[in-house]
Amino acid sequence: MAFADHFSTIAARYATYRPAYPAALVGVLADRAPGGTAWDVGCGNGQLSVALASRFARVIATDPAQAQLDAAIAAPGVEYRCVPAEASGLPPASIALVVAAQAAHWFDFPRFTAEVERVALPGALVALVSYGTCVIDGMAANEVVARYYHDDAGPFWPPGRLHVENHYRDLVLPWPAVDAPPLEMTAAWTRDELFGYLTTWSATVKLVAARGEGPVEAVHAALAAVWPTEERRTIRWPLTVKLARR
To answer: Which of 47, 98, 107, 163 lies at a 20 to 30 A Cα distance from 81?
Structure first.
């Protein structure tokens, strides 16, 4: 079955403008997983894969989009492979941590969990991580982004986005749950860096294909009207973290 490829056409931009996962997330995962090999599923350009390598001796990072892997960050201990989440080719009972960050909502989820059952060690940690809309310092900028998210980009979000919006409520891991503390990503960005991030949304890719650059240029102008050029503002993304013990 072909995968839903939302990001190959913007892989380099994705690598540049997506926020970095916090060290606290890596700590939560590593502290709860047995030692061994981590599998970063749907790794994109390796943002989490490289961070995991600080705590795991080996990280196997997989993505079905070769364009994403071509833009990935090389790092000792990280091995990139172009394979789907549902058919990894990994040996049985070989993985101590299975983590899908901002990716599980695109999977064929029943097939993915069957693959996890096959490749994860008994006692392995399984983690789903996602982040939804961001919160920006400054009410006016927040309103600009919220309006773009719902009104302009809204009709173009792929169906899987609903899982992000409901905090992965319907993506049920069939193993005992493990508690996770509240976590968030933060970044100190200029308005142009935030705008670059908006252009990496799957809905923006589809919006531009359907309607051209006009709506995207309009949101850039709206941000410029309320946010000085070089000013950096704190942006926060609350993380959804679902953990289970295989």
So the answer is: 163
